[in-house]
Every structure is written in structure tokens, then in C-alpha cells.
Amino acid sequence: MKKIALLFVALITLSFTKIDNDKVRFRATIENRHSDTLVIRSRSFNKIVVADKEGNFSDEFSVEEGFYQLFDGAEYAKLYLKNGYDLRMSLNAEKFDESIIFEGDGANENNFLAEMALDDEKFDYAGMLQASETEFPQLLQKRKEFTLNKFEGKDLETNFVNAYKKDFEQSMAGLQAYYNESLKVRKLNGQKSPTFNYENYKGGNTSLDDFKGKYVYVDVWATWCGPCRAEIPALKKLEEHYHGKKEIVFVSISIDQAKDHDKWKKFVKDKELGGVQLFADKDWNSDFVKGYQINGIPRFIIIGPKGEIVNADAPRPSAEDIYQTIDTLLK
């Protein structure tokens, strides 16, 4: 009778811990966490998981099988979820990618994603995009072979492998397209620069000819552009560093629409923007913008003392090599 009672208790326990196949169970333990919430989302899904009193995260929810993005308040990680998974994640938010570990159902697939994310972070894509037309296809092929070889010896679900390979091929196609566009821009180097003659925030108009004999570091931006605004602190530091250097001038060209002209003036004043602040005449359709084939901002450009294009896609103010780039020119 005692054995029967113990068996009955065991069965009850199993029934309470059994994972619903119509849901995924997700749990996380995070050291040095950035927030008391985790956001799991895709284009058609958004789930907020709140930490309990002990700081642990746990929830169950239904999903469509596929890739999701996890956000901890500061950084992102890629997840693969499907109903029936009982997935446990642990990490140290101060190290994030380097510390993510998954256990439970779906662990193999998600540990693979974490491994590839770390490799992606270390890979020199910037250097790859600077390769010659002959070198780039070879480097791209090597990158493809390296990634596909990562599947060997891994116990991964077929659906996951197929989905990952599809996403990877799309990203490689995107990288090829981006390289093609950047190559067009690079071929502008050495040519005579398109000119400008735009309204100056301080009054009147300012043209490129006004800066003959100087290097011109141009920032093409807009008040509505988040990445542009993110570069402002670094740009201010850069301008301050070279303050008093007569060989270089910093010019910011806003491509805000005409209806936002007053917004631009207020932004320049409120943010105390330095350098030469100009307002392009036809936003994206301005001759200077079209001449540099700009289809995304911010774009930084270096023009030489004779009006030649030194770098049609120069390093951003926040880039590690920007000071070295400018110092080399001013020697």
C-alpha cells in the first residue's frame, strides 16, 4: 500500500511538472542584470518576462517555431523557440555573449546561436568590406564554408538547421549587396567632389569653395536620425580636439525636409552644435547628396584642400581610427 501511495505521489508530481506541448517554458538566471524585465520578440510577437523576488525569470507562452530576439535592457541575443521546449538560460550581463549558456530542451540549438553570435562579433566584417573586387568573393566564400562547417558533429533539429541556413544565405546576399554599394562609393575617391552652397545656421550661404586649401570633414545627417544623434558627443570631442587647427574644418549638412527647417535651427541651438551647420536645399534630392550616392545616414566624408574626394565614406567620429586618419592627413 505504501508503494502504491508513493507511486501516486510521483505521478501527481510529474503531472504538475509536465511541459505543455502547446507552450514553451522559458527560465533565466542573470547575474548583474540590466533590468528586471526581459523582452522576447519577433515581428509578430512580443513577450515581457518579469523577474520574481529572487531575481529569476520564468514564464510559459505559445510561439510559432522560429527565431526570436531577446533584449535585457542593454544587449540583444538571438533565440530559437518552439512549443514544447523547456529552456533554461544563464548569463552574466557584464560579459553577455561570452557567458550565455542554455540547458534543457532546445539547448543545443540555442547554444549554437550563442556560439555563432560570439564568432560574428569577433569577425572583421569592416576589413572584409574594404577588400578588392577580386578578394571579396573569395573572402565571402570562405565565410560561408566556415559557417556551414560549424554544423558538422552537432545534434541539431532539422527545422532549425534549415531555418538557420536560409537566414544565413540571406545575410550573405545582403553583405554582397552592401559591398557592391560601398564599392561604388569607394570609386569616388580621388575624383573632384560634388559641391554645395547651402544655408548657414549663422546666416547667409556657405559653399565648398569657401574652404579651399583646407580639409573638410563633412557630416550628412538629420534631426530625426537616431544614429546621427548618437554620433554628436563624439563629433563634439573630435571638433574640440582639432580646434585651432587651420588646416581642417568640420561641416554638418542637414538633409531635413524644408518643413522641418525651424526644428533644425532649434536642434542646433539646444544641442549647442559646433562646426559649420548647413541646411541642404532639397533634402535627399540635393545635388551634393545624390553626387555622393547617399542612401543612408549618417555619412561622413573627407574632402581635400583642392576639392578632391579623399574618402567618400570616412570613419565616424566614434570610430577608433578617426583621429589617426585625420592626423595622417594633417602631417
UniProtKB/TrEMBL annotation:
One of its GO terms (cellular component) is cell envelope. Keywords: Cytochrome c-type biogenesis, Disulfide bond, Redox-active center. GO terms for biological process: cytochrome complex assembly. Residues 187-331 form the Thioredoxin domain. GO terms for molecular function: antioxidant activity; oxidoreductase activity. It is found in: Cell envelope. CDD domains: TlpA_like_family. It comes from the Bacteria. InterPro entries: AhpC/TSA, Thioredoxin-like_sf, Thioredoxin_domain, Thioredoxin_ResA/DsbE_sf. This is Thioredoxin-like.
